[in-house]
Amino acid sequence: MDEETIEEYCQALGPSVPQDNDLRKQAEAFIIEGMETPGFIAAMLHISSNPDLNRGRKIDISQAAAIQFKNIVETHWKYKDDEYAKEMREDGYKVIIIPDETKTYVKENILTAYINVHSEKVAKQFDFIVRCVTKHGFPDKYEYEFDVKREPLNEIADILFPRLEAITTEICGDNSGQGSRLKILIGHCFYISNQISLCKRYLDPSMLDFIVKFNTSALEAEIDNSLTQPTESIEEIDHRAESFQWKLKKTAMNFLFRTFQKFSNP
Q: Are both 131 and 219 inside the same structural domain?
């Protein structure tokens, strides 16, 4: 999408945040019209993951775009075609059919965009979007008994995990709060998917070695001095327990303990 169109959406997203009522209504009308325009979702993905677009603006444009992105995915992603949405339209609901190429674009780019997310508020919107896309992308596979039906999980792992592994390589040396948060999310994916039995992907010793090393490096990563100094303050202890750096170590320890406890062969 061209820069001029991106700027038009940025200008509309600012007033969409409740302030001046008339401006908000105008902005919302522009956005609602834009939802049915090819490229709208791609634009929201781009804006929400590009904090540079906030420069010189009073409103967090990235957050506003993330909210619009989340809303359209939550409401319209599930509709496959006009026939599928016919009943809803007959009941008076507005339905947008998101083209398959747009859905493919989101699936291929959302994890990369996630790396550039600049705030927890935007990250929460992305968390919801990923869950929604997964749920509707695998409607008959999203919920199942781990010990009975493993094949759907293996299919998801084959699609998703290569990209997660690539991201872990990209952020390996990033021990900042943002880097730690991403590692925690990826670590949770590795832990949950291999909790009952190993995915087929990780029956390959070299692939299992990869995620073991990822969690080992997370466990060995240095922590900011401010989070390690002795203290007797309950408030400070509670604060440290919520830090991404300590949470990452907890996630890594849980994975390593579970993996060696259940699957090692001493």
A: no
